[in-house]
Design brief:
By secondary structure, the chain is an alpha/beta fold. 35% of the residues lie in helices and 16% in strands. It is built from five helices and five strands; from the N terminus they run H-E-H-E-H-E-H-H-E-E. Helix 2 links the parallel strand 1 and strand 2. 25% of the residues are buried.
């Protein structure tokens, strides 16, 4: 019986990582050392810590398609503000985001076709107007009764081609 799995390469890499990891975060309590939380897209072109000049342990990062402030993101922010030292929140969608290029129905059609299963029940939270969505998301955070007045909140756009972050809200 073979014990080879689709994850073997990742587990080997983790062994190397773990060998040097213990010293770097020994005694670390999980508080965001820079007081920062970032809500951003799951796009692999985005390196949230690096683009802000931060390092491991400095920030709480929440990623989802489109970098939207979902209910789960709000939950993470409330915990960050009250338990994990967060006093600055950045909402960061990005240029050339796949969530801005198709409608909900187009995504459902594509996924249904590729999956061979009807995907019309699934919501994908597409972003037809990124700036309007960003303003709405920042408002969701600033008006949340458990966050309101407890953290500075900004809305930014990250340019995946230049690496620049621009504050829009």
């Amino acid at each position: 019986m073979s014990t080879t799995t689709a994850f073997d390469d990742l587990l080997r890499a983790n062994e190397e990582y773990a060998a040097s990891h213990a010293q770097a975060l020994q005694g670390f309590d999980g508080v965001a050392r820079a007081g920062v939380a970032v809500i951003t897209c799951m796009d692999s072109r985005i390196e949230p810590l690096q683009l802000l000049g931060l390092t491991h342990g400095d920030a709480k990062i929440f990623r989802n398609p489109g970098g939207r402030v979902t209910d789960a993101a709000l939950e993470a922010l409330v915990l960050g503000v009250h338990l994990l030292g967060v006093d600055r929140i950045l909402v960061v969608p990005h240029t050339r985001c796949a969530m801005t290029t198709r409608s909900e129905n187009e995504l459902r059609e594509t996924i249904s076709e590729r999956a061979g299963v009807d995907a019309w029940f699934q919501r994908f939270h597409v972003v037809p107007d990124q700036e309007a969505a960003l303003a709405e998301d920042v408002h969701r955070v600033t008006s949340h009764p458990l966050i309101q007045g407890r953290a500075e909140v900004g809305g930014f756009r990250y340019d995946v081609d230049t690496g620049r972050l621009t504050q829009l809200v």
